Amino acid sequence: MTTQEDSGERILYLIKSRGPASAPELGALLGMTTMGARQHIAKLEQEGLLYSVEERKARGRPVAKWRLTEKAQSRFPDSHANLTVDLIASTREVFGEKGLEKLIEARNAKQLQSYLTALSVYPDMAQRVAALAELRSAEGYMANAFFEQDEGVWYLVENHCPVCVAAQHCQGLCRAELQNFQRCFEGLAMVERTEHLLKGARRCCYRFTGKSR
Q1: 99 Cβ contact partners less than 8 Å away, ≥ 6 residues apart
Q2: What is the number of alpha carbons within 13 Å of residue 42 lying toward its C-beta?
Q3: Sequence-distant (≥ 6) Cβ neighbours of residue 155 within 8 angstroms
């Protein structure tokens, strides 16, 4: 039997992974009535976990879309954020900016080798994007891959960043990850970041455009 707490957690997860949603949308996803969804939403709003923004449509009345507050965002793990930020600051103090760059380069090289080893068994671009999404999800990024038929391209979406706080203090971490993706798809696809959490987006999104051979 699903408890109110379970349903509340599922609502938070759905909004985190899918973006702002209305009560009818959440009800449909949860397999309950709109009224039932509203009851859970009201409790989450009282706890300071949700807030609504009205979105206008071309026709009809505005629709209330529910979003996560900062308090709700903090319920999703940010891997040892305070410790990581302290280590970044200490590295800057002791070794300077160049020392920090060397540290990022070392991490970048280790991550790249790990990805290359895991992805090298997938010569097909579609399989490789899907495999990368699985790798990133295992690292806490809540990632998924999908094919956009109209554009003829693949997208990798990361709905959570477990190192977001660290990346805010050292943006080289994000730069290195994009470079690693590009290296992993050399000869297969052009990789570009189309949405970036640190630039105010809800998530990070990468586009994979296949290269003709």
Answers
A1: 91, 92
A2: 6
A3: 145, 146, 147, 148, 194, 205, 206, 207, 208
Which class is 4-73 in CATH? Answer: mainly alpha
Residue labelled with tokens 């990022």: 104
Residue 99 backbone zone (phi > 0: left; psi -120 to 50: alpha; other: beta): alpha
Residue pair 136/184 in contact (Cβ under 8 Å)? The answer is no
pLDDT digits (tens, 9 = 90+) for 148-186: 999 999 999 998 887 776 667 666 777 788 999 999 999
Paired residues of 68 in beta bridges:
50
* Pair 104, 173: CB distance under 8 Å: yes
**81-210 belongs to which CATH class?**
alpha beta
Q: In the chain, what are the domain boundaries?
A: 4-73, 81-210
Q: What is the mean pLDDT of the chain?
A: 84
